[in-house]
Amino acid sequence: MQNPLQISTRNISLSKAAESTIREKADKLDQFYGRIMSCRVMVETLHKSHHKGIMYHVRIDITVPGGEIVVKRPSHEDLYVAIRDSFDAARRQLENYARKQRGEVKAHVQQPQGRVTKIFRKEGYGFIEGQENYEIYFHRNAVLNGDFDHLNVGTPVRYTEELGENGPQASTVTVIGGQRG
């Protein structure tokens, strides 16, 4: 961490043990992302609840190159649980940030597109001509949004292909842009 940890409180005085726990957990954050510029921790007590007593709230603001990570977790009646939960959330957010920085974020694969080539309404199935110019079977249950009865030959669709018992089949079929044949 480039700048020293800042711990502030509101409506509470932290014990040496609680402050030490915060410092230890903040130091461990560098293991998950080594370029942390600063870390600010705010510990506060919220108004007494008639049912739960004193509630502790821990907020963590972490400055990293190109952004800031803010952790706000639900309050808890145990100070150490509130600290643990907040730092666990901070760790997860830092790991995600580091993955994005390294370009390891999953790229969403675009579903292939095709056109309905045959439709057998009474039997409840049809075929799509896929991008590779071969036919893919689909069942009415694979068509999303109840659109099976609105399909016609030529309707453009997106589909998810899988290998069925008799060859390729579409496990999910979506009408493109709400177009119906």
Q: What is the CATH domain class of the largest domain? A: Alpha Beta
Low-confidence stretches: none
**Helix count?**
2
Mean pLDDT over all positions: 87
Distance from N terminus to C terminus (CA atoms, Å) equals 60 Å
CATH homologous superfamily assignment of the largest domain:
Ribosome hibernation promotion factor-like
| H/E topology pattern | EHEEEHEEEEE
Q: What sort of overall outline do the alpha carbons produce when their principal axes are compared?
A: elongated
What is the level-2 CATH architecture name of the largest domain? 2-Layer Sandwich
Report the C-alpha radius of gyration, rounded.
27 Å
Class computed from helices, strands and strand pairing: alpha+beta
How many strand units?
Answer: 9
Number of domains: 2
Taken as a percent bin, the fraction of beta residues is 35-45%
Please outline the major beta sheet.
Answer: 5 strands, mixed, barrel
- Read across the widest sheet, the strand sequence of neighbours is 5-6-7-9-8
